[in-house]
Amino acid sequence: MHFFTYKNGELFAEDVPVRELINEFGTPLYIYSYGTLIRHIRAYEEAFCEVPHIICYAVKANSNLAILRIFAELGIGADIVSGGELFRAIKAGIKPHKIVFAGVGKTDEEIEYALKNKILMFNVESEAELYKINEKAKSLKKIAYVALRVNPDIDPKTHKYIATGLKSSKFGIPIEKALDYYKIAKSLKNIKVIGIHKHIGSQITETSAFVEALNKILSLYDRLSKEDLDIEYVDIGGGLGITYKDETPPHPKDLADSLIPLIKNKKGKLIIEPGRSIVGNAGILVTKVLYNKETDTKNFFIVDAGMNDLIRPTLYGSYHDIQPVVIRKRPKLVADVVGPICESGDFLAKDRELEKVSAGEYLAVMSAGAYGFAMSSNYNSRPRAAEVLVKGDKYALIRKRETYKDLIKNEIIPEELL
Ligand code: LLP
After folding, report:
1. Whose C-alpha in 208, 231, 274, 403 is 20 to 30 A from the C-alpha of 252?
2. What is the pLDDT of residues 371-396, one digit of tens each?
């Protein structure tokens, strides 16, 4: 559920007409709804209230500082995968003791940075990483708290690029090796094992994969207890899908109802790392129609947002609903919605039935709050979009539109070589 609705044929973000935001900030423009973010966090909090838990929001989905600050105010933790994300999370006020750090390629600097900031735990993805973290902790005279990320070999039935818990994937430790690695971890002096972690993929629309994966890691949990390896945190990752078109993903409550019975009697705390299901439907991308173009075979709406602003359609073939900002009830047309970038893969929608909007009108690309701006780039030297947060009838700019100067600010012409 979200707070982007039409009133008299005009799209509103909460109580603010999208047109007003366009007039003030221009396009392409990401617009987020505060009320929707809060609603989604509450849905998780209420769903899992029966068991001790921490929600560690997956920063990668949308890492804008203002969004992170909203979560910090609610006492939410963070799932991070880089030093940069740790920097953002801390800057936003998220408590380090609620931060978990995953990722297969943590660098020495990132490990040190996280140790110095006393994060809750590292979600370790390989044997070599265990040794590395131990060595770094030793040199800093610290104890590193870790969970092992276990790869349960489960097909989450999602796009192959975002399935992460299959045997063939680079993520985690094969479940059959996990016990051995836990024993190694236990033997390392500067490491304290406190958790078990898994994350099987993203945009998962059935609870069964979550249940299967949790069952697998809980049988490992039981074996670990027998070996005197007590686990304090069971981190089940993120991955709950959202409705982009006609998917019917479980509500956090459905997820909780199917998982809580499995963990209720276990000691320790549950960690959940939702990203998309918190921010996905809390954001839209608004774009201006620049040209209408007809060829013998196709109609095109050429808009001012491109694959550099929202790469999901071309990268994963993802569907994002597209609606005119002002509905005028006119004939519809089947068209591709394409950006200005010099790539045939630069599209936001293919063969989409849309009202025949004219140049100068605006379209809203829905469900763009997760992995939208966060995956944007400057390709074709396009300054990145501005981002705005709406709360009721108020709004604020939370990221300025980039300028041409921003594009080149880190570049150096080495006169001495030229
Ligand atoms: N935890 C870990 C360790 C993860 O790798 C991820 C996402 C999450 C949590 C959050 O998953 P979520 O609740 O958002 O599904 N760029 C892709 C999605 C990549 C997801 C990567 N990992 C997309 O646009 O669909």
Report:
1. 231
2. 999 999 999 999 999 999 999 999 99
